[in-house]
Structure formats: structure tokens, C-alpha cells
Amino acid sequence: MIKIGLTGSIGMGKSTTGQMFVQRGCPLHDADAVVHELYHGEAVPLIEAEFPGTTGPLGVDRAVLSQKVIGNPEAMRRLESIIHPLVRAEERKFFEKAQSDKADIVVLDIPLLYETHAQDRVDVVVVVSADESIQRRRVLERPGMTAEKFEAIKAKQMPDAEKRSRADYVIDTGKGLEAAARQVEAILDDVRSRFAQTGE
After folding, report:
1. What pTM did the predictor assign?
2. Same domain, residue pair 84 and 52
3. Considering its fold, how many domains does the chain have in total?
4. How far, in Å, are 50, 77, 105, 133, 170 from residue 164 at the CA level?
5. Least buried of 70, 106, 116, 134, by fewest C-beta within 10 Å?
6. Do 71 and 151 sit in the same domain of this protein?
7. What residues form the annotated binding site for ATP?
8. What's the burial of 101, exposed, middle or buried (CB within 10 Å: 0-12/13-18/19+)?
9. What is the mean pLDDT of residues 99-122?
10. Which amino acids are annotated as binding site, given as ranges?
11. What's 18's domain CATH number?
């Protein structure tokens, strides 16, 4: 089973591209979606114990939790030590199901793939990218987003150019959905033929 790591900076079109892989029969594991579920389930009592007052009847209150961890590296490390093992456990369940379903390729949507060294856990890395002007327009159209927030998020992410230089494949999402879909198909064809030749 070939593992593709899908990543890209904010506003580059990663979620939309991930669904293109799904439409072509590749199971997708979305790390952000898993964290969202954990914040309403298994992680709630663990986070409340570590950060009292950050949860309520609906689960983790992200705004309150953010106030406790943003700008506090030690608190962020404590939070990550709770969340990362739970996400990895869900990832293992995902792999087991994909193997039992006889999937030949699976996709791991990991926003901070290079920043967390997750490239070591996948066979191939696909980076989604677009011109900075397109990225900025997409992000600033999001509800509640400001230019300051956008710059702060970008500052925490590896620069797009560096991600592209490290990637096995780059998908340009700035040329429309059809062009992106063609790139996804070409990547899947190439990955299958590469791994068939090497016998991996």
C-alpha cells in the first residue's frame, strides 16, 4: 500500500485536492478532521485535566484553549503530547481499514507535514501550491480572516518555495479545478508505475 502525504500552505487548495484523490478511489486520512473529532470526544477529559476550564458541554472550547497555548511553547508541547498520540492511533486504524479494503494507494492530508517531519512516514509527498496573489485572495475571503492573521499563520509554516523544492510532486491549483484534477490523475498513474517497477 503506497502512502501519499498531501500538504500545502494555507489557502493553496489542499482540501479540494484531497477530495480529488478520494473521487479516484484513494482513501483519505484528514489530520485536521481527526483533531476536530477528538476535540469533541476522546481528548476532552485529557485536555480538561491538563488545561482546566478549556472544555464545556460541546467539547473543547478552541478560543479558550488558544489563549492558554498560543505564544506559550511549553503549553503547546503539553497539548501536542496529548493530541499527537491520539491522531497517530486513528491513523493506524485508518491504515488497517484501507488494507482490509485492498486499497493500493492512501492519502494522508497533513497540514504541517514538513514542519512535523511526517515525510518520514509516507512514500511520496505531494505539495499543493498557487501564486501568492491567489493564495492571499482565497484566505482573505474566509470569514473572520484578516491580513494580520494570515501573515501570522504564514509565519508558522515553511515557505511555499521550500515545500515545492522538497516535494516529489507539485499540484498547481491556480489554474482551475479541471487542471488540478488532470494533475492528480497524472500523479496517480506515475506513482503506480514507479512502485510497480521497483516492486515496493
Report:
1. 0.87
2. yes
3. 2
4. 37, 28, 22, 17, 6
5. 70
6. no
7. 11-16
8. exposed
9. 93
10. 11-16
11. 3.40.50.300
